[in-house]
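Structure first, sequence second, as always.
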């Protein structure tokens, strides 16, 4: 088995600060915080402290935060909870597949949709969006890392922050937003749904009480996510420098490449398509050299489906690899990776 010296995959190990406390958090976080006994009261206090920490780092109120045990559920809750009977649903061609799924369900139920195109930089072309509509707005794309400008319409807004996380908070007013714990090296299976106090939101799921979400989340994982976030924000960050090193190398050392990512986007994401290369063969060659990368759609990386994001941008969809630059990455690893990429491309182009 080849030892992976450079992990450029979207998935990564849990933040060390959380990993070191995980057993302790599971020991402390098992009681039901809604009960009245002493252990449950202690757990409720831990949960409230976690909420306050998230509120501070996400620049929202603690009572506007709900935790989810399944991130994708947040798209349904955040979007459908804001839709009124008269609303059109506006979303972009580069949104996540879960947004497309919600839109398809709404269209089947008779709702009008407004699919917004993008240009070759992935900028959403916000057109014909009225104040009665609900606009799904992606803060940053999970494949390219390219940031969106602030929307200009007066529509209600669901902000998709699942990729941008706390690296780039929304700079516009929104009614609901969704964050993914893994974006700050927290555990998978923790979503943070923000429902602004001023929002006209209703629970779109079948329910018979005033609870806004199912509350099926793992409390120990929520606590671990809070620890990860608190430590993530204090880490040194040279990812922008490393992203520039990779872009400059590829641009100068490898011919016939298309780089879909902008330097002024999220520093952690980079999408590159290399002409004359099969992506799956390049992934395996890089793995043999000790480097793990992704390819295809970020929503469906496991089955290597072509990227709908690149297709919508009018970019090449073959020979694509996606890199995620984690905060722990060093310049030495990046330089060695660039050489391995160049060598692998040269060999594959000869075959």
């Amino acid at each position: 088995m080849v030892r992976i010296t450079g992990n450029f995959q979207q998935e990564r190990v849990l933040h060390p600060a959380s990993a070191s406390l995980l057993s302790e958090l599971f020991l402390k976080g098992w009681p039901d915080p809604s009960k009245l006994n002493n252990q449950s009261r202690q757990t409720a206090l831990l949960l409230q402290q976690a909420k306050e920490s998230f509120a501070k780092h996400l620049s929202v109120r603690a009572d506007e935060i709900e935790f989810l045990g399944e991130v994708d559920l947040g798209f349904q809750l955040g979007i459908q909870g804001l839709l009124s009977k008269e609303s059109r649903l506006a979303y972009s061609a580069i949104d996540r597949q879960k947004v497309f799924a919600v839109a398809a369900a709404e269209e089947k139920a008779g709702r009008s949709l407004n699919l917004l195109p993008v240009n070759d930089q992935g900028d959403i072309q916000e057109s014909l969006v009225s104040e009665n509509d609900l606009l799904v707005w992606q803060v940053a794309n999970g494949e390219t890392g390219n940031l969106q400008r602030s929307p200009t319409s007066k529509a209600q807004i669901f902000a998709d922050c699942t990729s941008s996380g706390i690296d780039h908070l929304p700079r516009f007013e929104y009614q609901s937003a969704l964050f993914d714990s893994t974006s700050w090296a927290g555990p998978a299976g923790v979503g943070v749904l923000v429902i602004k106090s001023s929002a006209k939101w209703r629970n779109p799921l079948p329910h018979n009480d005033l609870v806004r979400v199912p509350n099926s989340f793992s409390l120990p994982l929520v606590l671990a996510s809070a620890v990860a976030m608190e430590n993530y924000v204090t880490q040194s960050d040279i990812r922008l420098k490393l992203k520039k090193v990779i872009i400059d190398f590829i641009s100068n050392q490898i011919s016939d490449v298309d780089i879909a990512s902008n330097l002024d986007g999220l520093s952690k994401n980079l999408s590159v398509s290399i002409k004359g290369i099969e992506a799956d063969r390049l992934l395996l060659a890089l793995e043999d050299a000790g480097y793990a990368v992704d390819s295809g759609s970020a929503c469906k990386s496991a089955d290597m489906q072509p990227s709908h994001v690149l297709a919508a941008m009018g970019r090449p969809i073959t020979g694509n690899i996606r890199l995620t630059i984690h905060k722990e990455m060093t310049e030495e690893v990046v330089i060695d990776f660039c050489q391995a990429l160049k060598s692998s491309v040269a060999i594959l182009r000869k075959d």
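Margin note: The longest strand covers residues 269-274.
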